[in-house]
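We keep the chain:
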Amino acid sequence: QAQLVESGGGLVQPGGSLRLSCAASGSIYSIYAMNWYRQAPGKQRELVAAITSGGSTNYADSVKGRFTISRDNAKNTVYLQMNSLKPEDTAVYYCNADLWAKDGRGHYWGQGTQVTVSS
């Protein structure tokens, strides 16, 4: 069974940077889109950034120009470089992947990593 594990969250001051990583492991045949979502307290989960297997990217308007999504297909890993962080970026960030594994194709989620932007 496939598993996604995020890392890299933490506390950062406004204007600072963080880099999130998400590694997929298990009996994986192919990984298609890989995405980052976030959920702030009292709000719905929202799509932050997405990247296809070919490297095409898409961003939420709120993070364009500040966040960069990338992936290393050899390592089954997706990254989210977050710059110029704002307090409103505070949320739990979740990795999501559309992948084909031994037990079938589907969307898999990581456990989430907390990002807090505060002075």
User: Anything to note?
Assistant: The radius of gyration is 14 Å. The longest strand covers residues 28-39. The chain has no helices and eleven strands. The chain has a mean pLDDT of 96.
